[in-house]
Specification:
Blueprint lengths: L5 E9 L6 H10 L5 E2 L12 E2 L22 H16 L7 H4 L2 E6 L5 H14 L7 H4 L5 H10 L5 E4 L5 H14 L5 E8 L3 H9 L23 E9 H6 L6 E10 L12 H14 L8 E3 L6 H15 L8 E2 L2 H4 L6 H15 L1 E2 L22 E2 L4 E7 L4 E8 L9
Parallel strand pairs: 4-5, 4-6, 9-10, 9-13
Antiparallel strand pairs: 1-7, 1-8, 2-3, 6-7, 8-14, 11-12, 13-14
Length: 414
């Protein structure tokens, strides 16, 4: 009988505190802060000058010279680097013709090649030309990361790009899981990528949604998020496919819950109806109860409204047990990577399960009003972590919650 279990066999990442998964595990355990001055562009005149930038990222150190970088944006390069690491981690390189035929690509994103497009547009404005050159922009679409991955690796399965704001990466993983369960693909490269760029930086500054210093999730003195960048990629496989090739299994995607606040373009529904719906749906999809959850990787943006809403939602779902579950925001270390956030945080969840630890919420000193859960402000903890819930609550009320678990041959609660 064919199993409907979908397992994680490979992981890859590039972010502000690490350029590969092993570095990431060590940096998370150390509570490393990747927030500092932004140098990719001029931040003069903004409310903040900091971000969680990937420093000294040289694509040539991560991507073979057989891949042309000429038409690849920073977002594309980070996604490609994370993909190649994940495939190697899964033991799937080189990708055979037979494997490529049943392998899909699902990527979440946002700004795409905007960082590269911005100076092109600025030169056009300065030139006074009647027409803006179209060809340079064609290479830097929001879907180009998935395109480059599929084209370079000759992956012939389904290819999709999701743009559900800050839940894009998580939504991509949930959809990838569904593709495998319904038999449309045996393997899926999935995750998200996001670059820092001027337009995003300007927009969040205009909203006054950024902290002038660094983000402090769930803290009394939180003033907003810190923007970050990076990529996170998981290799998902059907359990049957992974078994046949003797793959190492890091964990399972147990469930996915998706909902919409249907409330506001940017502000969350403070009654947490959408968040509760997504968390409840993820648990139901996974076939587990709230009592099975060992750790919650929070959306935890450090904006006053979002942290309060998420805390309310967790209390509603978990009841009296809410205060017993460690809840942490790794955005305190790597910033809010928007379209990549849910994907990089999925890598965090896999590492928490593999290494049996809960990463901390750094910068958290004084609990905020009504933010009274265990936010792991005392440093990294060794803990039994078998089931993790990962929250992504995005602009537009786009909510996606993923449930990950330690691998079990029998499936179900771990």
């Amino acid at each position: 009988m064919k199993s409907d279990q979908v397992v994680v066999t490979g992981r890859g990442t590039v972010n502000a505190i690490a350029k590969n998964v092993s570095e990431f595990a060590a940096a998370l355990k150390a509570g490393t802060c990747g927030i500092g001055p932004v140098t990719l562009f001029d931040t003069a005149g903004y409310r903040t000058h900091t971000g969680a930038q990937v420093k000294d990222f040289d694509p040539l150190l991560h991507i073979p010279r057989t891949v042309s970088l000429k038409r690849m944006s920073r977002a594309d390069c980070m996604a490609m680097a994370a993909t190649l690491e994940a495939l190697a981690d899964a033991g799937l390189t080189p990708v055979s013709t037979e494997l490529a035929a049943v392998t899909g690509v699902v990527i979440g994103g946002g700004a795409g090649g905007m960082l590269e497009c911005e100076p092109i547009f600025a030169r056009y404005l300065e030139s006074g030309a009647d027409r803006m050159p179209g060809s340079p922009f064609a290479a830097f679409s929001c879907a180009s990361s998935a395109d480059h991955i599929a084209t370079h690796l000759k992956l012939m399965g389904p290819k999709t790009t999701f743009m559900t704001a800050c839940s894009s990466g998580a939504t991509a993983i949930g959809y990838a899981r569904d593709l495998i369960r319904q038999g449309t693909a045996e393997v899926v490269v999935c995750g998200g990528t996001e670059p820092l760029c001027r337009i995003t930086y300007s927009a969040f500054n205009a909203l006054q949604a950024v902290d002038p210093d660094y983000c402090k999730p769930f803290d009394r003195d939180r003033q907003g998020l810190t923007l970050g960048e990076g990529a996170g990629i998981l290799i998902l496989e059907s359990l049957d496919h992974a078994r046949k090739r003797g793959a190492t299994v890091y964990g399972e995607v147990l469930g996915c819950g998706i909902s919409c606040d249907a409330s506001h373009m940017t502000a969350p529904d403070m009654n947490a109806v959408g968040a509760v719906s997504a968390m409840t749906a993820a648990l139901a999809d996974a076939g587990i109860s709230a009592d099975n959850v060992d750790y919650i990787n929070a959306h935890g943006t450090a904006t006053p409204a979002n942290d309060l809403m998420e805390t309310r939602g967790i209390k509603s779902v978990f009841g009296t047990r809410a205060r017993q579950i460690p809840v942490s925001s790794t955005k305190s270390m790597i910033g809010h990577t928007l379209g990549a956030a849910g994907a990089i945080e999925a890598v965090v969840c896999m590492l928490a399960i593999e290494h049996q630890f809960v990463p901390p919420t750094i910068h958290h000193e004084t609990p905020g009003e009504a933010c009274d859960l265990d936010y792991v402000s005392d440093g990294t903890r060794e803990a039994q972590v078998n089931v993790v819930l990962s929250n992504s609550f995005a602009f537009g009320g786009n909510n996606t919650v993923l449930a990950f678990g330690r691998f079990s041959e029998n499936g179900g609660a771990r």
